[in-house]
Amino acid sequence: MRSVVFTTWMLCLLTFASVFAQDPFDNSKAQKSAQLFAQGIISTQANEYNIAFTPDGQQAYFTRKKGKWGNNNKEISTIYTSTFKDGKWSTPIIAHFSGKYDDGDVFVAPDGQRLFFTSKRPVNSQTKADSDIWMLYKTSNGWSQPVHLGNTINSPKDEYSPVTSKNDNLYFASARAGGLGQGDVYVAKFKAGKYAKPKNLQAPINSAKGEWNVTIAPDESYLIFEASERKENLSPAGDLYISYKKGSLWTSPIHLAMINSKGSDLYPTLSPDGKYLIYASTKGGNAGIYQIKISTLLDKYNHDPFITNDAVVLGLLLLILAFVFQTSHSDRFKGFYKYVPALLLCYFIPSVFNSLGVISGEDSRLYFVSSRYLLPASLVLLTISIDFQGIKRLGSKAVIMFFAGTIGIIIGGPLALLIIGSIAPEIVGGTGPDAVWRGLTTVAGSWIGGGANQTAMKEVFQVGDKLFSAMITVDVITANIWMAFLLYGAGISAKVDGWFKADSSAIKEVQERVVNYQASIAKIPTFNDLATIMAIGFGCVAVAHFGADLIAPWVKTNAPQLAKFSLTSGFFWLIVIATTLGLLLSFTKLRKYEGAGASRMGSFLLYVLIASIGMKMDITAIFENPGLFLIGIVWMLVHVIIMITIGKIIKAPFFFVAVGSQANVGGAASAPVVASAFHPSLAPVGVLLAVLGYAVGTYGAWLCGIIMQSVAE
Fold first, then answer.
1. Cα(118)–Cα(165) distance, rounded to whole angstroms?
2. Is the CB of residue 186 less than 8 Å from the CB of residue 195?
3. How many other CB atoms are there within 10 angstroms of residue 513's CB atom?
4. Three-state SS for 417?
5. What is the distance between the alpha carbons of residues 684 and 24, in angstroms, rounded to a whole number?
6. Peptide bond into 204 cis (omega under 30)
7. Longest CA span, the chain
8. pTM here?
9. 325-347 per-position pLDDT tens digit
């Protein structure tokens, strides 16, 4: 009798164990790499994509479309369902609510009480050309009839991939008007039993390109979505990205290179237990459904830096800047800074901390804040001090030499591209944000204006971070080699002036006028002065943002062909408006706030920006393409030849040649150094011309960039 009871118990246990062991997602090969899901049953030769599961994982809903994958496929999409029973998935059948209209993008809420999908079915008997979001409720008899979510959620454009978190917040993508790009990700918070008005997740999730299909972790700790036309994309269509939520902010999206392919990778979703990422891919031809253990991806793409609090990161960056400023003015480090530019360290030291994992340029929001708020304020404060009358009094030769330098840079970039491209075309190649011509626009911004204009070009022409790192090195090293020649020339300026046949007697008169003017406006700033300077800077930032928010969407809607010239970019208009406001204010009494330190405050904001850029860069990028130095050298030679030629023709003193060149190439940081090499009291001349460089830097660099784009294409 005991043996019978024992045998019975063992059979029950084995039966229970066999049932318990049946995992609808079990696939040992999917631990390390993506594998087809339910191959031959759910994943077939047709197009299967966008799968969702009930909370117990025993029932699946997915979209199927026959024919060849692509835009020319006119077949409607249909939602199918399959049940996991006896260790395998059943033959799919059409879901009871689908089959008549173009349906897709199905999702089952984490609590299993609602099912969402998109459809082009009629609304209130009105035919629809776009996809809207619909919902089914769980009832005692099964799913309810589909309910349209209404115009709070839906728009006249397509909505995509609705998903909800545990707290019922609804995330989805939409091509509606007012977004940043072709399609954006939105969230509608669930409050008091209904959905609030959807909010655009903004940058860094959304961009000027396209963000489409999305899934959210149940606790909203991370978000995975499809994005098109990003610089990291392996596919000309869509790739998958992941972003983590840090507090109330989303980190910069990370490209999931492990699973992305040259086909379309899209429609991510999570298994109910959260162990697997399941997504669609066309890497096999038509769309198929793949799965991979989510921990494999999270372990690879979620390396938190040691410091994640941006307040701490900001403090660290300011300590770095203070260290560089203090040591660069110390006699003890004089020999070191003779060979290593201080500006390069402001970029380089934060990049070291980033490489060591102490901080993260990808996770931090400091660069975004710096580029959108501190940069335009810096431009205003640097240009408000421009004294057109003072520059006019310097004499025409000083201004001519300055603009000769500007023209040399504007045409030097395209010429360098043509020359190096004819010799070594592989050096000047690249596509998208990594196109070399785009990177060179940042050099143009720096060499005509300064760091603020350089960063402006990075954003306007959407330069990749890695390429930008290389261009910074080309910029700084090439510029400092030329500066060394100018400093040497200052020591033999009498001989050079003799060769130019120049009369340098006017320099002394210029020296006296500039010194007197600077003395007339100099003052010890009061608290009211500092408050007014900040109000001027950030007040203009507010106006610039307001104007950019109006102009860029209008141009994008009414003249989309102008995108080639960056005129649909909100950032472009932000920078142009800020610079223009600074120039206009320079004709008012507010210009006198330079005496209270307007440009110094602008420079401080600029250096904070420079340090935040350093967090994002890889200083070793130049070693991957040392040929970029050839472009920089040829470019600089064009600039030098034009400067010397014009100087010889107009018989300009070498002082004007040197300072005019350095006011372009070196900006306010080094133009005074070169000027003071002739005589310490002449340093303000370098400042005045450098400020003129800030004024024209954005416009000149943009023109240079457009010409280089034409040459490259």
1. 18
2. no
3. 15
4. helix
5. 75
6. yes
7. 123
8. 0.56
9. 899 888 888 888 877 777 778 87
